[in-house]
Specification:
It contains 5 helices and no strands. The chain has 108 residues and is mainly α. It has a domain at 36-107. The longest helix is centred in the middle third of the chain and has 20 residues, at 36-55.
Amino acid sequence: MDTPSQTTTPVDPQPEEKENPLVHILRFVATVLWRWPVIVFLAGIIAAIGLGALYGDDYIVARFCFFVAVAWVTARGVTDAEVKGHDYKKAIAVMVIVAGILVFGSSI
């Protein structure tokens, strides 16, 4: 006969924690905004706003807009899958960053 000490009770697995739907929405939006066509379009819009600010003699806003546009495109270029899988990824990343600095410096 089984004694109470010998019987085993099945252990219920921990119930899976449901992720917040907001996390899924934010993850989706982030992946959509990180695609090249979206980045180029939105960076162009931001640069156009900066150009308008430049003609309106608001140089601080123009510099900020140009910086955001160039930094966004540069960050995407550095983190691109083709760059990550390349043998010379560090050299390519440095070249992309230097090109971004040169573009930003020439826009001022």
